[in-house]
Write a structure and sequence with these properties.
Elements: E1 2-7, H1 14-25, E2 31-38, H2 42-55, E3 58-62, E4 69-75, E5 80-85, E6 97-104, E7 112-118, H3 124-132, E8 143-148, H4 163-169, H5 176-183, E9 187-188, H6 189-192, E10 213-217, E11 224-229, E12 242-246
Parallel strand pairs: 1-2, 7-8
Antiparallel strand pairs: 1-12, 2-4, 3-4, 5-6, 6-7, 8-10, 9-10, 11-12
GO molecular function, one term: catalytic activity
Organism: Actinomadura craniellae
Pfam families: Exo_endo_phos
Amino acid sequence: MRVASYNIDAAATADQREHQFTRLAELGLDVLGIQEAKHWDRDGWAQLHEAEILLGMRGFPVPSNHHGCHLVLFVREPKVRVLRERHDRAAPYWHALCGLEIVLDEHLFDRIDLYNTHLAPSSPTTRLAEAETFHLLTKRAPVILLGDFNALPAGDPNPPRTDASYRSVRRKLDRTPAAVIAEAGFTDVGAHLEDTTPTVGHAPGSKLAYRCDRICTTLPPAAITGYQVVTDLDDCSDHRPVVAEFTFAKA
């Protein structure tokens, strides 16, 4: 199963958006979580349905509490079958938590829970509160948690920065939410496969290059069989897509 996360950038143009989803469709994804689906609820969710057509996938959106930066999980049916939606817009989530219970045909796990998150953009306190809820997600089934975490991973090297950049991005230089997520039993796929390629910092004017966008899981580490950071969409967003591959034993 190929799973991806991508903050598509609320400022992207219509042409950039079409290019993004055309490229994503080439990746052979079974699950895709996107962040910053800015105002996609307008015009009867028309942009959502356009993306579904380009991807050949079905989308499940949840509105954001702030800024209109909605979250969406796309799945490829019938390989991925959705049992129920498990979204959460209550506190402490700054945006929301987009969740689905799924099953995969002919595979060992009866069920996997998918969650797409977009942690608070500027408040370390809110991000920590959000991260502290994730241990509750692990009680029912194996979990894949993906999204824009807006702060440093637990174990990556410190990103290079200048004094000027430190003043503007110091709130991102916080590993506490990532550490809390790890303590809850999640494996960071990129870290597990020793790929620390930054997912932000490539756009003009960026002040900090680090692995902001991540895919984490409570699945056994042996199920993690691939990972990549997509770098050929750098002109379309200030974030890069990340893709993880999971391989399961058949039942």
